[in-house]
User: Fold this.
Amino acid sequence: MSDVSSSAGLAGLAGLAGLQSEIVSCRACPRLVRWREEVARVKRAAFAGEEYWGRPVPGFGDPAATVLVLGLAPAAHGGNRTGRVFTGDRSGDWLFGSLHRVGLANQPDSVAVDDGLALQGCWVAAAVRCAPPANKPTPAERDTCLPYAVRELALLAHVRVIVCLGSFAWDAALRVLASGGSTVSRPRPKFGHGAEATIGGRVLLGCYHPSQQNTFTGKLTRPMIDDVMRRARALGGVPDPR
Assistant:
């Protein structure tokens, strides 16, 4: 379920593939398992004819990425339906549209895993890999899923920048970095749109989540998300392919 490129070493590719296999077969959180499978079984009327993924959703992108974009969790009728995070939902429309405008994606749309989307210098993942009820994982579910992100970041050895979509992802990124051996200052860096914090040689960038709650109200605009992604690309040293 991921896009892989030959630019990463074979060991890294094998490690990412093995991790993805573990993620998609995970059943560690009973509440999330019940919810994701119920959503996949009942379905939304607009997608009644589609087969839902209904499993945990791994990260995807360029294994040689210098930029990691971290979200909260797959959407019930987005990633939980398509099998790729931020794919097939309104949040993804905003995210991939921005990544395309700043030169980190080859196209602005993401509707299915076979739609031709490719990321350059960028990897996209979620802090929690299963769609949660009301989009709210519990602290226990967050902590149970955290080791996947720790291992993923270790395998993405070139990542210099972590873009955190929302305060949940910001907190998760701090936990991931601390679990990986980096020292997180006290008081901990606070989330905000455009916030920056350097931890263990990596830069955290804060961005409001591109949820409809934020985009419909104007709390997050296209220039705002583009500014963050453009900053991430610059910090990550990703050349503009255009």
Remarks:
- The chain has eight helices and six strands.
- The chain has one domain: 10-236.
